Amino acid sequence: MVTENLEAVRREIRAHAEKAGRNPDDVLLLAVSKTKPESDIRALYEAGQRDFGENYVQELCEKQSHLPKDIRWHMIGHLQRNKVKYIAPFVALIHSVDSRALADTIEKEAAKAGRIIPVLIEVNVAGETTKFGVTPEEEPSLAGYIRSLSHVQLRGFMTSAPIVQDPEENRPVFRRLRQLSVDINRQSINNEKTDVLSMGMSDDFTVAVEEGSTCVRVGTRIFGARDYSR
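Above: the chain's sequence. Below: its structure in C-alpha cell form.
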C-alpha cells in the first residue's frame, strides 16, 4: 500500500509541476516517516525513495542506525540545541533553523564532525503563535548571519502553512516564501544561491508545487494516519 501511495503522490507532483510550467525533477519528494515502522521505510526504499524526514532526534537516530546508509535523513521538526550533536555526523539537511543560537550550535557540532551541514531557515509566514520559525522580517538578518559561518551552509527556507480545508487558502503563504527567497538571493554575496523551498505537506503539496516548492514534505498521504500512542 505505501508503495502505491508513493507512486500516486509522485504522479500528482509531476502533474502540478507541469501545470505550472516547471520541471517535475526540480521537486524533491520527502517522505515524512515519523512514528512509522522501519518496514514501511524499507518498502519505500525498495521502490527507489531515498529522502526521509523525521521530527524527533531519538527516532531519527534509531532509524538511521538500522536502515540503509544511503538514505538521506532530513530533520524537519523543532530542534533543541542539546540534541544537535546526535545528528550532526549524518543529517542531510536541517529544515528548522530559527535562531542564531541554534545556528551557532550546528556550527560547533558540524566542525567536530568534520562536515558542512546544509540548513534551511524556518519562516513562520502565516504568523501562527503555535508554530516555530522567524518572522519574514527577521529572515534577512538570520540569513546573513548563517552565511558568515564556516560549517553551516544556508540552502534555503522552510515553512509550515496553516491547516485549512481548502488548499487554495495557503497559496498566498507559499507565494510569500518564494518571494522572500527571491529577495534574499538578490542580496547574495558571491552569487551564493538559496535554492531550496521546503513547503507543502499532505493536504496542500499540489498548490505548493505550483507556487515553486522544491521540496514537499508528505507523510499521511504516503504512510496513512499516524498512531501517536505508539
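The two ends are 21 Å apart (CA to CA).
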